[in-house]
Design a protein that fits this description.
Shape: globular
Structural class: alpha+beta
Radius of gyration: 19 Å
Distance between the termini: 48 Å
Order of helices and strands: HHEHHEHE
Number of strands: 3
């Protein structure tokens, strides 16, 4: 079998759905005994300029909390599975046990997209 270049691999991933990519990541992690965790951002602490002036820290990590499943519970379970690597039973348990966090400590844009997806499926969502 010919070795694929990085560009060839990325082209293959472009054609995959989010669920297929999630399954691929799971298989990759199992085969090579690794985890595909996002790199933690490095925070550099700086001194406040002006003695008693407090440095205001902007929030960069958000939690997406499912507060209610709404009337379209099956659609919400599907979206939860797309957003997470949970199986069907785990996703159903999360939706049934609302309010529960779906995603924790994610970037603002990721949290907003996840919240939109969940709201689009009929769920009640809170971003903290």
């Amino acid at each position: 079998m010919a070795k694929l270049s990085q560009e060839d691999l990325l082209a293959q991933f472009d054609d995959m759905t989010l669920i297929e990519l999630s399954e691929f990541v799971k298989a990759f992690e199992e085969r090579f005994d690794v985890t595909a965790a996002a790199a933690a951002p490095v925070v550099v602490a700086g001194g406040a300029a002006g003695g008693d002036a407090a440095a205001v820290e902007e929030q960069d990590e958000f939690d997406v909390i499912l507060t209610g499943a709404g009337e379209k519970k099956i659609q919400v379970i599907k979206v939860v599975r797309e957003l997470t690597s949970l199986g069907l039973k785990e996703a159903k348990d999360l939706v049934d046990g609302a309010p529960k966090p779906v995603l924790e400590k994610v970037a603002k844009d990721v949290a907003e997209k996840a919240a939109e997806s969940l709201k689009g499926a009929g769920a009640a969502v809170e971003v903290k």
